[in-house]
Amino acid sequence: MTLVTVKELTDKAYQNGYAIGAFSVASTEMINGAIQAAERTNAPIILQIAEVRLKQTPLHIIGPAMVQAAKEAAVPIAVHLDHGLTEPVIKQALELGFTSVMFDGSMFPIEENIAKSQKISRMARQYSASFEAEIGKVGGSEDGSEDIEAQLTALHEAKLFLNQVDVDVLAVAIGNSHGFYKSTTQIRFDHLEILQQALQYPFVLHGGSGLTEQDFHVAIEQGVAKINVATSTFHAALQKVKELEPMQDYYELHNALIDGSAENVEKHIHMFRSAGRVQYV
Predict the structure, then answer these.
(1) Residue 120 CB partners (closer than 8 Å, separation 6+)
(2) Which residue in 11, 82, 168, 215 is the catalytic one?
(3) Hey, where are the domains in the chain?
(4) What's the mean pLDDT in 91-111?
(5) How many CB atoms lie within 10 A of CB 189?
(6) What is the pTM (predicted TM-score) of this model?
(7) 82 classed as catalytic
(8) What is the predicted pLDDT for the residue at 245?
(9) CATH superfamily, region 6-280
């Protein structure tokens, strides 16, 4: 249908009570699976990859595949760099045609996060791309290499940030973590409600793997318009491969990775209430 920005998708989701699934991919099989699920459910989605994952999947290889696949899809799709950490990589993504980038400055003091985010936001606007930032600290890490301690988003810092940075969606920390949760989740929906009532802004929920459908629905009701899913899709693809072992040729593996990815993406599309929403975009 068309390659769109994250802002185009999340503004409509925020206004109409659903969330856009932002699905991390690591191969053309995962790209194919995500798009198949989106087309089957008539749902807009976001394809994304985090900077820390580029060691295994170089951006100059997977980036053009993500962009072209989105252009050829039958539903609106945004292509997003998740957890951008360095200016050269963020610029490379924009040059490749990504329609959205995130700069993760959550490890810096708020004043430094603001200054760095202002610079990246201006860069994104030069490419007509959307911009995402993070306030507070989401637990864990994108590639599982660190166990970052979660730090709730402070309302006064979020206000200060939004007053000074041109940002389209804001990732907030409410006890959520990357990867599968190691224990019963303690998501602070009360804190999310406080943030939404005060800021009236579309939020991003990182760490969607392992949360329940009810968790997602409560989050959406409190202004979450983009939900990131990575670990559970990787796990679903791996489980599909294990179900079919021993395999006789490569294309059994290829198809298993596509099918496993598609099944998990489709499941989350329904939980996010985004199925059938293409007419809103």
Answers:
(1) 84, 87, 90, 101, 103, 131
(2) 82
(3) 6-280
(4) 97
(5) 14
(6) 0.92
(7) yes
(8) 84
(9) Aldolase class I (3.20.20.70)
